[in-house]
Amino acid sequence: MKKLIAIAAIVASVLLTTGSAAVAQTGDAQADGNAHPNVGAFLLPRLTDGSLRIICSGTLVTARVFLTASHCTDFALSQGFTATWITFDPNFGTDAAHNIFSTPYHGTIVHNPDYKQPYHSDFSLILLDAPVTGITPAAIAPLGFLDVMRDAGTLNTAEYLNVGYGTSEKLVVKSQGPTFPFDGIRKWTISGFHSLNQDMIHLDQNLNRGLSGTGYGDSGGPTFVNTPGGLVVISVVSTGDVPLYSTSVNTRVDTAEARAFLAPYLALR
Description:
269 residues; mainly beta; Thrombin, subunit H; 6-stranded antiparallel β-barrel; 4 helices; 13% helix
């Protein structure tokens, strides 16, 4: 799965391979099925035929609020889109015939006014027209959650669960060159901890150490940490190394800045 700029997801969507290699996130990615039904894909119409394609990932955090990355909403706005579609179908990307033109979930882009390229304040949302039923929203980590983990010395031992619709790591195919295999199926991976700063958490997805992580199209998707009360979203995927072999850089959502932006919308029903 992964990140970088939203347009990378579009590029990835045409880099399909016909080989038998496993695709979707990086490393030992697992098909999600219905394990994390509140993780969805941010969709935009194809310019060629109007059918919907995956741009980024994201998370339902209230019945009407879909959390995603600002660099994803920024891209959508730059293309003239102020409204968009969401899907929670774990197999949405298998629509090879390009015959899906709508989903039950439509909403308006709410772009973070503090966003600055490439990844400053990289959290925005889509406000859905109507509440989603039948899916339990994810919980956002409490204010300062990762700082508490740091002070308790548990950042290094925690498992970081990524869920999204992105690509696998770079694969070099003979006579075809480097590709980032993509199947549009929701998957999950586990990353390790690398470092923490005021706004970002850097995760280790080094394939040589048996870790895994995010890819192009996972931008905006969640990283979860498990707590006694269940999973909480600690960050959204922002960027990482270009071949997707080693590093994921995610924007924290447990900060005062994130809470200030999200609070008015989280209160909506």
